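Bumping my old thread because nobody answered last time. Still need a sequence for this structure:
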């Protein structure tokens, strides 16, 4: 009997994602034996520091990738938005799954309804993302934006105990865990751009594992792959990561791919937007053109300022 080992983070959402991949693999081959091995990542261990301050790429993927290269796992399941645009040598992005809702959503404490517009001035909104912070401050500069770390269960618990008046999360994770009834507002993707790759899963394996690569083809969604290829090409050209506010969303219409891209200052005072389109087969080129258009509008200076602030030491306590 063939056996495959899946490397996974240990959060409820990560395990849901890995089990979904396991189920798809078993459906394609009922004789397949699959085991999920939990590995703790740097991002899981460091919970008291904002992501932008940790200053490391692959915060939620590096240890899983190491297990693949060491032969301790056959494949790893990631949220695509966590996967660096440059994989370690020897690894391949073998499959990108059908995308869940890519939007961001607003969650409020139990019994409260409404969206961002309904929040009173000074309301406390939690997010771990500089991209979300920038777009929120551009939209509602009167709100107090606070850092929010932890897995989705932890973030929801912090909201419910009154630490925040609202939190902003990815719709995909909320829906996958069955919390749709907690969504107060879905933020329009045309105006509020999500993270690169948000809503899609990435399945990574060693590039020389032809047997694994062949099995993973059944999980691959070409339209999602084209959209996220364009998004990741934009991100790679801008040398982005969790330390900089960059958003992008691709969509396919027939044989055309449209890509919206965004670069922002962390306080939302300057937001640059572009839109590029072209044949679906030119996804990489579309992403690079979008990045070039953003750079032509001053994105390089905006990102340099953001990185400089992220690298600056914290002021000494009084």
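Sorry it took so long. Here it is:
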């Amino acid at each position: 009997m063939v056996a495959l080992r899946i490397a996974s983070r240990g959060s409820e959402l990560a395990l849901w994602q890995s089990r979904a991949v396991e189920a798809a693999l078993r459906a394609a081959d009922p004789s397949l034996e699959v085991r999920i091995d939990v590995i703790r990542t740097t991002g899981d261990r460091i919970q008291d520091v904002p992501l932008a301050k940790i200053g490391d790429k692959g915060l939620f993927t590096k240890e899983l990738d190491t297990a693949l290269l060491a032969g301790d796992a056959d494949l790893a399941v990631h949220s695509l938005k966590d996967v660096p645009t440059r994989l370690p040598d020897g690894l391949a992005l073998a499959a990108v799954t059908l995308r869940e809702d890519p939007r961001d959503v607003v969650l409020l404490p139990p019994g409260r309804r409404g969206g961002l517009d309904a929040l009173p001035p000074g309301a406390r909104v939690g997010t771990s993302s500089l991209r979300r912070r920038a777009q929120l401050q551009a939209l509602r500069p009167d709100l107090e934006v606070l850092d929010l770390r932890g897995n989705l269960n932890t973030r929801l618990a912090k909201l419910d105990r009154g630490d925040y008046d609202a939190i902003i999360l990815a719709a995909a994770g909320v829906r996958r865990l069955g919390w749709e009834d907690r969504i107060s507002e879905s933020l329009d993707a045309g105006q509020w751009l999500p993270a690169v790759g948000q809503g899609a899963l990435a399945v990574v394996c060693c590039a020389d594992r032809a047997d694994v690569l062949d099995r993973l083809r059944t999980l691959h969604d070409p339209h999602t792959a084209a959209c996220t290829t364009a998004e990741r090409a934009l991100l790679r050209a801008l040398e982005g990561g969790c330390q900089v506010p960059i958003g992008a969303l691709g969509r396919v219409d027939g044989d055309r791919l449209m890509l919206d891209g965004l670069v922002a200052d962390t306080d939302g005072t300057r937001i640059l937007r572009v839109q590029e389109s072209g044949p679906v087969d030119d996804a990489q080129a579309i992403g690079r053109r979008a990045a070039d258009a953003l750079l032509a509008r001053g994105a390089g200076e905006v990102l340099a300022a953001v990185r400089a602030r992220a690298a600056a030491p914290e002021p000494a306590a009084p």
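Residues 12-28 form the longest helix (17 residues). Let me know if any region looks off to you.
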